[in-house]
Amino acid sequence: MDEVETMTSLTAVSESPPVPSAWREWLEEHGPKLLLFARQQARSHEDAKDIFQDALVKLVEKVRSGEFVGGQAAWQPYLYTTIRRLAIDLSRSVDRRKRREDNVAADAEDTQYDSFHPWFEGDSSDDETRSQLEDRLKDLPAKFSEVIIMKVWGEQTFAEIGEALGISQNTAASRYRYGLEALKKSLSNARRRGDLSI
Amino acid sequence: MKTDPTLLEEELRKLQAAPLDEALLERLEASADGTWTELSPQEIQVESFLREVSPAKLPADFLASLVSITHGVQFPVDQKVIIFPNTNIYPEKRGHRSMWGAAAAVAIIGAISALLIPTGSHSNNSSQVANRTQPPIISNKTGNFVPASFNRGLSEVHDEGVVWKSNNEPHRVMRVVYMDHVTLKDANGRTMEVEQPRVEYMLVPAKTD
Description:
The complex is a heterodimer. Chain A is mainly alpha-helical. Helix content of chain A is 70%, strand content 0%. The relative contact order of chain A is 0.10. Chain A has eight helices and no strands. By secondary structure, chain B is an alpha+beta fold. Chain B has a domain at 99-205. Helices cover 28% and strands 25% of the residues of chain B. Chain B has a four-stranded mixed β-sheet. Chain B is elongated and about 125 Å long. The interface between A and B is large, with 67 and 57 residues.
């Protein structure tokens, strides 16, 4: 009796090229969190995109050559570490350039550009929350905001955060706690001032 | 004027280091026993509140440029995983349909078969099994068969390999073949049995090392 199959017959084929959307799917899922971290590390949205892109190039090269150790589970920790390193390098080279040329106009342009590219998604009903959260995170000392971003949205463990930042996991946990407390207070103050409706 | 270091030392020794505050003591204790990295319920609550706000999606042109970086680089999978050539590597898990719905579908098939299979004198056996391998015999007579009973049994199970879902969790693809068996009866008491195989694909979480 003929089978009535509801799906196309599948045959196992080894070493077939993967579906083209696999990389895209991965980037759509994890890219926003990584870009958020890059924006926290970088001075501008454009620098953040450049840094993220450069970090991805490094990852892809290692994957292509078979050098990468740890599999997919290690991609995000690698990218966080690389983004941070690239951001530090870029910051140093920008500082050197700025000492040579005082370009106030370019800085103002960056600030204006960033205001049209918020860090967080939102519809009109929670624009205020989104905007306040972004501002409060920017106000926090970088060593707190970077841990918060990696932990809350990047869902990295304290061990992974410690590895990326070159600190112990206990130090990462401490910075997280201090940062979270400071963020809570800052958001509460905003609510009391009437800047935040939540 | 020369200051006697011994006297200075004595003065300094009279001073005591400030005691550790309670918060620091708790922190040190938690670090020592490995619980410092565990979040309190309040901290988890704050985290959940913050997570309600999502990072902005990648701009389309930026996403396209990132994807272009990956061109020509195979998306790595575990060596034990077999990639299917089908564009949809995640076969849909079929939901369980109503048994009566399946019976109704088979009954329709049975009714159509009944239209094509002759009734009457050439057989005293009131029970006939529809055999799809035989060509249908056109008959001028019709029969009104209704489902009398339904049974589904598991016929075969095949392991089709492992796929990785976008959340990086491996799933084993199982091809399950059921055999639906419907008994149809008409007003004259004649019965007809129809067998209909059904194939379903299921994703089962696979263990990894």
